[in-house]
């Protein structure tokens, strides 16, 4: 019996490329449907997990999906802003914890999330290095941001303005990295998190400049009438907040009108959740959404799409299977001479059949194993891998 | 000393064509060296296949060493062939994915438990055939002459008492022809083995004890028909 | 199209290993001792009086007036880790706009009377950039020198403490009531002094008495003198000119001024009275807030009674 295995093994080794192609195609035949299933399952679990962790989300009236995708995953277009006053209003209802999110800026392609310290504990984020946000102009970066950019605590990162023609005065701000968040395998890994006020500085709502009442500021002053000073545009808008200039930073106007893009709402209990949803149900300007139901709807779409993809994959598997059988049959034909010679020398028919069977078994088992390994790998790393391909491609 | 191989009243035809082979009687002594000559398609190879038990006659008997090849059950016939008959083919029929050593040992892979394989004997045979540097090479890396020497070594592994060679020099140049024939003849001589060789090569006929000419056989058959 | 890419991207968001659910903040919540960070001494006093040993107060070591203090990175981290951050409000913590603190742990003790805060008239209005005119205002911040406001601040402290330690509500209420009585008594004594001195012109060495003046009806002029810096001749001249009309015989100081200042003031027939706002405890470890206020009241009550003893 060992002879059968030996000859089968030798045959496969000698025709290593053909064997590899066969193993790979059988591996793919196994992997395509199972891997796809795993990816969809894992992806939906991930989506659902973060959505379920986020009970409610308040935003300006518009696309609920956009609000939720942006608020949960920092993807999609930035939704229309709501006012900080809207945040204060829901906060004053005292029906639960509220966390503001400003998602309007990016740096090196990574979203800059302006929020409050409570976001870190809400998302169970832990520091890998450095400290949490302390002062205006500081940033804490996600594990992937640190890995991909090589940035560390003490380095700086510059925000990119929302649009190139932002006339409201969004200036690029140089921020100091004070902490790196440990890996969470969530969108927080790709985020640059700053204080909400730092986002407002980027919006041009808060700024620091030379003290206009000081004598050496006279060069900037166009007109001084009593206590009213009109300064020219040369007033130095700081592009970096430093310990030296930080005290000159201040905010203008009523902060109730300052922009936010979403507010995470964690009601105290079911009753408060229902009450809140009731209150915002027919709100003209605001929407209070339940992220898990929005994501649920999205997943329904994904699952219906998956059916078609699976049918496609099944057809592919079928054709790949047929091709593999054809390859087997052709190679047996090419070997007819060899097999006849073996029989002439004295090999039993069962020996020849056994040898070919062993070859098929080895190829099949290897292929299935490969498919299973690929499936397991895709369960562990598939999403990240695909994501990195797509991100670098977009 | 009696006949080692004997064929009596043998008739054979392939079911799908007109070919017919009839041999009234053929007797071969142990150690005898016989050349079989004749035109293509006259049944020389078929004769070797009949002797080896690869195909069976419609009627008649084939007896080797007193045992009827025709009467044996299939598995016994196969065993008998493996142990007693060495086969050499015109096209060598080497297994492309096995090394020289493995090709020589092919019979053992087919038949024996791996532990009792005749590796040492295979090496000795290969060395004698001038293949010492080629143990681990593959057939496609060998010359024609080397290939046939490997095929002969494979046939000799079991120390057969009957060697059947079908045009063993058909694909070889002059030097290799002599080399291959001398290996076969030397073996037959030193082991008192019977050698039956199908050949077209008139220059080799002097090396044999007897020549069976299929032209005569056909003439006899035609005479018989008339 | 962008949205579909977004959906796809979101869908592919990494789901590798199980996320560590245990975090430091969760662990902190299970900690039984509550740290309460405060930004001035009156607040520290209120917290201590109301909560006693139930909490550990954190008041950074500050040289001078805490209103001019800016937190260092370490001090800020201590504030971030506190279970409760008690703020004076009324722009006392001018560093608040540029720091990050846990909003849900902060309590602005002057919030309840924020509509009654005094805006200083030296506010600076300026105009530049796209958003046009705006004001860099200054709000009077020594809120607790109006003892009624101090009571409201203490009440805010009590409410916040109860939120953090609801089990101790009874104790905190009881302690607050006692404190409230003492503050009320001070308030009443100051009211009666205020009533008595409502027509007595006074000089205030520093602009920290706005709420005090408003509540107790003290009228007078506010200077910008420091007790440990001899005023220059210009300032003396200004005083002489001013007092020619005002005819004030009493000048209220945050702290005992230099002897040279006192002597020169005496030559102008101006007596020194110390009313310490007690914003910090620098060099006054023996007297707590109430004791300092009692001394203040005693000092004030001397005005108009015994000229020579005043301020001693």
Describe the structure in your own words.
The complex is a heterotrimer of chains A (about 400), B (about 230) and C (about 300). Chain A has about 400 residues and is of the alpha+beta class. Helix content of chain A is about 50%, strand content about 20%. In chain A, strand 3 and strand 4 form a beta hairpin. In chain A, helix 1 crosses helix 11, helix 2 packs across helix 11 and helix 3 packs across helix 9. Chain A starts with a helix and ends with a helix. About 5% of the residues of chain A have low confidence. The radius of gyration of chain B is 18 Å and the shape is globular. Chain B has one domain: P-loop containing nucleotide triphosphate hydrolases (Rossmann fold). In chain B, the strands form two sheets. Chain B has a five-stranded parallel beta sheet, with helices on both faces. In chain B, strands 2-1-4-5 form a four-stranded antiparallel beta sheet, covered by helices on one side. In chain B, about 40% of the residues are buried. Chain B is an alpha/beta fold. Chain B is built from eight helices and nine strands. With about 300 residues, chain C is of the alpha/beta class. Chain C has two domains: about 130 residues, Rossmann fold, CATH 3.40.50; about 100 residues, Rossmann fold (3-Layer(aba) Sandwich), CATH 3.40.50. Helices cover about 40% and strands about 10% of the residues of chain C. Chain C has ten helices and ten strands. A four-stranded parallel beta sheet of chain C has the order 2-1-3-4, with helices on both faces. In chain C, strands 8-7-9-10 form a four-stranded parallel beta sheet, sandwiched between helices. In chain C, strands 5-6 form a two-stranded antiparallel sheet. In chain C, a hairpin with a 5-residue loop joins strand 5 and strand 6. Chain C starts with a helix and ends in an 11-residue tail after the last helix. Chains in contact: A-B, A-C. Chains A and C meet through helix 2, helix 3, helix 5, strand 10 and strand 12 of A and helix 1, helix 2, helix 4, strand 5 and strand 6 of C. Strand 12 of chain A pairs parallel with strand 5 of chain C.
């Amino acid at each position: 019996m060992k002879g059968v295995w030996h000859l089968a093994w030798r045959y496969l080794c000698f025709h290593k490329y053909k064997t590899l192609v066969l193993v790979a195609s059988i591996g793919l035949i196994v992997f395509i449907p199972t891997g796809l299933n795993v990816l969809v399952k894992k992806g939906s679990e991930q989506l659902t997990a973060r959505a379920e962790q986020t009970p409610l989300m308040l935003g300006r009236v518009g696309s609920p999906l956009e609000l939720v995708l942006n608020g949960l995953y920092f993807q999609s277009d930035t939704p229309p802003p709501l006012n900080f006053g809207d945040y204060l209003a829901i906060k004053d209802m005292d029906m639960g914890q509220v966390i503001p999110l400003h998602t309007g800026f990016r740096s090196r392609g990574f979203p800059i999330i302006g929020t409050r310290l409570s976001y870190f504990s809400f998302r169970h984020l832990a520091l890998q290095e450095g400290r949490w946000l302390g002062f205006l102009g500081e940033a804490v970066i996600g594990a992937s941001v640190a890995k991909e950019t090589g940035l560390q605590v003490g380095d700086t990162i510059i925000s990119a303005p929302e649009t190139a023609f932002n006339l409201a005065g969004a200036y690029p701000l140089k921020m100091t990295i004070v902490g790196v968040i440990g890996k969470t395998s969530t969108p927080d890994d790709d985020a640059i998190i700053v204080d909400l006020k730092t986002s407002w500085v980027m919006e041009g709502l808060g700024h620091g400049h030379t003290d206009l009442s000081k004598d050496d500021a006279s060069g900037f002053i166009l007109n001084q009438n009593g206590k009213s000073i009109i300064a020219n545009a040369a007033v130095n808008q700081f592009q970096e907040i430093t310990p030296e200039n930080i005290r000159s930073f201040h905010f203008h106007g009523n902060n109730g009108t300052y922009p936010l893009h979403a507010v995470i709402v964690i009601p105290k209990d079911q009753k408060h959740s229902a009450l809140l949803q009731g209150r915002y149900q027919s709100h003209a300007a605001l929407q209070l959404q339940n992220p898990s139901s929005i994501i649920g709807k999205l997943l329904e779409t994904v699952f219906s799409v998956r059916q078609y993809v699976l049918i496609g994959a099944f057809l592919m598997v079928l054709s790949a299977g047929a091709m593999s059988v054809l390859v087997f049959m052709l190679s047996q034909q090419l070997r007819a001479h060899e097999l006849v010679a073996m029989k002439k020398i004295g090999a039993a028919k069962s020996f020849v059949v056994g040898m070919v069977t062993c070859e098929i078994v080895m190829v099949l088992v290897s292929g299935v194993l490969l498919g299973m390994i690929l499936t397991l790998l895709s369960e562990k790393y598939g999403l990240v891998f695909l994501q990195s391909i797509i991100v670098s491609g977009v | 000393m009696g006949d080692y191989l004997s064929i009596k009243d043998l008739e054979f035809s392939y079911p799908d064509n007109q070919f017919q082979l009839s041999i009234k009687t053929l007797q071969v002594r142990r150690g005898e060296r016989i050349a079989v000559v004749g035109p293509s398609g006259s049944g020389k190879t078929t004769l070797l296949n009949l002797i080896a038990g690869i195909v069976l006659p419609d009627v008649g008997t084939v007896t080797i060493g007193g045992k009827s090849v025709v009467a044996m059950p299939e598995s016994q016939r196969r065993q008998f062939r493996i142990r007693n008959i060495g086969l050499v083919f015109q096209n060598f029929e080497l297994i492309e994915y096995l090394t020289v050593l493995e090709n020589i040992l092919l019979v053992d892979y087919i038949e024996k438990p791996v532990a009792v394989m005749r590796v040492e004997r295979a090496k000795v045979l290969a060395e004698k055939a001038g293949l010492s540097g080629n143990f681990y090479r593959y057939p496609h890396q060998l010359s024609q002459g080397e290939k046939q020497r490997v095929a002969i070594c494979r046939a000799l592994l079991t120390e057969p008492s009957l060697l059947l060679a079908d045009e063993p020099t058909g694909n070889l140049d002059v030097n290799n022809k002599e080399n291959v024939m001398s290996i076969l003849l030397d073996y037959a001589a030193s082991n008192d083995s019977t050698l039956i060789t199908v050949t077209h090569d008139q220059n080799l006929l002097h090396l044999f004890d007897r020549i069976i000419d299929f032209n005569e056989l056909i003439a006899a058959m035609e005479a018989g028909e008339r | 199209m962008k949205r579909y890419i977004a959906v796809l991207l979101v869908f592919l968001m990494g789901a590798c290993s199980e996320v560590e659910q245990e975090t430091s903040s969760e662990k902190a919540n299970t900690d039984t001792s509550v740290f309460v960070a405060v930004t001035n001494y009156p607040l520290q006093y209120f917290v201590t009086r109301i909560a006693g040993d139930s909490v550990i107060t954190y008041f950074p070591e500050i040289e001078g007036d805490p209103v001019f203090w800016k937190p260092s990175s370490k001090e800020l981290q201590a504030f971030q880790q506190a279970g409760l951050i008690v703020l004076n409000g009324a722009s006392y913590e001018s560093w608040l706009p540029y720091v990050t603190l846990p909003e849900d742990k902060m309590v602005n003790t002057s919030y309840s009377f924020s509509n009654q805060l005094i805006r200083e008239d030296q506010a600076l209005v300026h105009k530049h950039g796209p958003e046009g005119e705006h004001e860099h205002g200054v709000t009077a911040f020594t809120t607790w020198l109006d003892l009624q406001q101090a009571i409201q601040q203490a009440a805010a402290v009590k409410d916040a403490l109860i939120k953090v330690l609801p089990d101790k509500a009874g104790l905190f209420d009881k302690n607050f009531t006692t404190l409230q009585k003492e503050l009320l008594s001070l308030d009443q004594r100051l009211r009666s002094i205020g009533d008595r001195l409502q027509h007595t012109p006074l000089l205030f060495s520093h602009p920290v008495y706005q709420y005090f003046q408003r509540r107790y009806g003290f009228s007078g002029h506010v200077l910008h003198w420091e007790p440990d810096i001899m005023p220059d001749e210009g300032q003396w001249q200004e005083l002489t000119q001013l007092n020619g009309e005002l005819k004030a015989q009493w000048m209220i100081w945050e702290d005992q001024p230099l002897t040279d200042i006192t002597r020169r003031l005496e030559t102008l027939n101006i007596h020194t009275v110390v009313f310490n706002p007690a914003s910090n405890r620098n060099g006054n470890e023996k007297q707590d807030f109430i004791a300092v206020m009692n001394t203040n009241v005693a000092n004030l009550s001397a005005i108009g009674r015994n000229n020579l003893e005043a301020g001693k």
